[in-house]
């Protein structure tokens, strides 16, 4: 789609707003009209139909100036431009929005507009859901030739372009007094009816719809006022705006949660470090002979295993010392194998005797000291063998 929508905003919200849907490829007007004021801009939604919107603003609210910049044009000298206009403009220079139009050596052409006026124009558009692709001085969209001015009547006013970077809006009653004071007398290309008796050398151009003439000067125009603080927002930024506060609140909540988690993790790390120091201290108190401490848990297990083995050996020796007198009284009873379970503190004895009564006498004599589990006895030839399980009662 190559068509564009062009509108012209006035100084006040009640001023009429001419609009035009134009096809630059075929230089064809698709539709045109005039809205009663800014409150009716929402009627352009259907007309715009997704086409790019270019907004013209009245040069009556703009000040075109040429200033001489001392030295080279740098960022610092650009910042000083407003103060070069202090004596020429009645407005506070800090409240002005400046746009650089042309530069030739130390000569700089610029346009100035009050920030509050820019805010009003953009607010009219935003309130009706419109977004401008560009915001251009209306007079700088008129045709330009080096040897003559350009002029066209629009909404009861004359729009005049007098140089590549300057122009003006003139009420019909003020046109003659203005032109009389111009020396030399200007040559003016008029794209509307030439006013009777107007000073200057007027040249009638083929008549054309004023908004169509201005629309032809929109594309490629470098006088866009949407710069700096008034720079046009990309589409995603406009859609993002309603969700901005929600996203900020969600971001703050996320930061609080992450901060709490980080604090808890730091506290746990500090507690873990303190516990490790305590474990190391206890270990060194228990085993001062160990010079190297690499893994306290593993090294402690090794020590416990040694202690358990020592405890088991001590238990076995104690049981054998208690059994020795009994076995001495029963020479017929001979132990074949011994197996000691340190965890259960049990002694499993496989023994051989001449008869069953030897096993009974053994059980009777150790009954005060040991618990003896019944075991199966079997006769093999002239001997009886069996296994007894003993557990100390103490």
TrEMBL record:
InterPro entries: ATPase_NBD, GspL_cyto_dom, GspL_pp_dom, T2SS_protein-GspL. It is found in: Cell inner membrane. CDD domains: ASKHA_T2SSL_N. Residues 238-393 form the GspL periplasmic domain. Keywords: Cell inner membrane, Cell membrane, Membrane, Protein transport, Transmembrane, Transmembrane helix, Transport. It is a single-pass membrane protein. Residues 6-232 form the GspL cytoplasmic actin-ATPase-like domain. Its main location: membrane. Signal peptide: none annotated. Inner membrane component of the type II secretion system required for the energy-dependent secretion of extracellular factors such as proteases and toxins from the periplasm. Belongs to the GSP L family. This is Type II secretion system protein L. The lineage of its organism: Bacteria, Pseudomonadati, Pseudomonadota, Gammaproteobacteria, Aeromonadales. The gene is exeL.
């Amino acid at each position: 789609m190559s068509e564009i929508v062009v509108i012209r905003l006035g100084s006040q919200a009640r001023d009429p707003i001419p609009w035009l849907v134009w096809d630059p490829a075929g230089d064809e007007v698709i539709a045109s009209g005039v809205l009663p004021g800014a409150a009716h801009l929402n009627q352009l939604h259907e007309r715009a139909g997704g086409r790019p919107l270019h907004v013209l603003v009245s040069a009556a609210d703009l000040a075109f100036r040429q200033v001489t910049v001392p030295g080279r044009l740098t960022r610092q000298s650009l910042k000083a431009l407003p103060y070069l206009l202090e004596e020429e403009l009645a407005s506070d220079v800090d409240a002005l929005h400046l746009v650089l139009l042309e530069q030739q050596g130390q000569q700089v052409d610029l346009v100035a507009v009050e920030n509050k006026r820019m805010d009003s124009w953009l607010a009219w558009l935003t309130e009706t859901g419109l977004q401008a692709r560009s915001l251009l001085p209306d007079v700088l969209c008129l045709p330009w030739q080096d040897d003559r001015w350009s002029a066209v009547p629009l909404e009861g006013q004359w729009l005049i372009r007098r140089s590549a970077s300057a122009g003006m809006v003139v009420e019909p009653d003020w046109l003659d007094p203005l032109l009389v004071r111009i020396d030399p007398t200007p040559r003016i290309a008029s794209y509307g009816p030439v006013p009777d008796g107007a000073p200057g050398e007027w040249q009638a151009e083929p008549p054309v719809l004023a908004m169509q003439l201005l629309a032809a000067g929109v594309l490629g125009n470098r006088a866009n006022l949407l710069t700096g603080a008034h720079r046009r927002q990309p589409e995603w930024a406009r859609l993002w705006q309603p969700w901005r506060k929600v996203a900020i609140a969600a971001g703050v909540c996320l930061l609080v949660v992450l901060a709490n988690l980080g604090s808890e993790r730091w506290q746990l790390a500090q507690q873990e470090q303190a516990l490790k120091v305590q474990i190391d201290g206890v270990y060194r108190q228990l085993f001062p002979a160990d010079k190297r401490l690499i893994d306290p848990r593993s090294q402690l297990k090794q020590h416990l295993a040694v202690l358990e083995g020592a405890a088991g050996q001590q238990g076995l020796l104690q049981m054998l010392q208690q059994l020795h007198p009994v076995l001495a009284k029963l020479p017929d009873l001979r132990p074949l194998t011994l197996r000691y379970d340190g965890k259960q503190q049990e002694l499993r004895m496989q023994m051989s005797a001449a008869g069953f009564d030897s096993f009974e006498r053994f059980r009777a004599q150790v009954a005060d000291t040991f618990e003896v589990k019944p075991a199966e006895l079997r006769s093999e030839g002239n001997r009886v063998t069996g296994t007894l399980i003993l557990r100390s009662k103490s």
